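Milestone M4 deliverable, item 7.
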Amino acid sequence: MSEAVTRTVTSPPGLLASLDPLLREWLPRQRWFAGKDRPVTGFALVAATELLPPTTKLGLYHLLVRAHQPLLPGHGGQEQPGECYQLLIGVREALPPRLAPALIGHVSEGPLAGRTVYEALHDTRPAELLLEALRSRARIGGLRFERDPGQEIRPGLVPRLMTVEQSNSSVVYGDTFILKLLRRIVPGINPDLELPLALAREGCPRVPPPTAWLVADPDPADPGEPHVLGVLQPFVQGATDGWELALRELAKGEDFVAEARALGRATAEVHTALARALPTVTLGHSGLRAMVAGMTERLAAAVRAVPALRPYATGLGSAYTALDGLAAEGQTWTAQRVHGDLHLGQCLRSPARGSSHAFGSGGEWSLIDFEGEPARPLAERRMPQPVVRDVAAMLRSFDYAARSADPPQPDWAEHCRAAYCSGYAEAAGTDPRTDPVMLRAYETDKAVYEVLYEARHRPQWLPVPLAAVRRLAGPDPTGPDLT
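Output delivered:
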């Protein structure tokens, strides 16, 4: 492809109909599919772009499809408004053995009849095509491949799909870049691009700056906001994610205090840079009332869905009423843009290279994945919030790590939680523990979210957030999470 390639494409009629029965079986099995509790009843095509024509040995389609599902009980009507998903569908006569895990199925009718379709990100050629399109700033149909002109993308980097479980899909190119392709797509400015761009403008070294990004233009027949589909960033070489590092130290019987303190400092640096880069607001009683109402509503929904929460509902709700009481007395808080889904797995520790940001055992921390919780509406994820939301989420992550050990190590978690807050205070000038009511409310909200998630997706993990629920609902919400 040459610089700024523009190509008009058309997709064959009947494409989605021919894929429908295969996608109904395949899509719910994907880690990133959100509606696992309900069957897929059909699909609506949002956009289809032919990246490689199927007349060649290899065909490639980029699809945005909306999955229709029955409504949850109590919502009335017949079907839930469908989530929109990004799919990259490869087309071959037959799959070589190396691509067997990527199989979607064999098409029996329509324009691809007799062909085999599969998840194309497992295949080298489609992944290479995406990087080349970003490098050349291509426009293919309604897809725009954009990049930062100040950053170079070297051609010929070998791709590999990351197989770790996550809510999106990531491809690493030659240990130089990582392309994160979002799976659940909503129109509007995605914070996973917006916030790293803002932090890059501030010169914040804690977040890899976006190199390129993929956007889908709105349908001319239905004008709206563009859809952010993916972000390419520098790959942090030699890095270990915080979750793996914490479990490794736990297995060796080592503490994590120095790393937790350094991570607290890194979090505070990112928060400080975000407050400089984007507007902050003052949160008073009216704003708190809406926030508390949302927390209360999520608690009520979780109690209905998970009977194990019922004995703790009143105690958990007291965290929210206490916060509302402070706001009613006139206390205010500063709200700003935050990470929105911070945990150990969203943090990378890389070896120090003479950097002034080296801490503890010689590594430096980076924060990644600013998308926020994908299940929440985009407008909510982009709202300014108190920074203790991120702090509370990280405190919950330390508890998760400690309870993954055999036997669980609640004291390990407590030491990490204290060190993290101390490190945060060193960099920010304010210790999050000086706002215990807000911190408890956010930690409670996070634990309730975790209970609902684990009950639906990983029942064997349910005891982990339930231990926090017992603590947060009891007389000593600041104590360790015991059994």
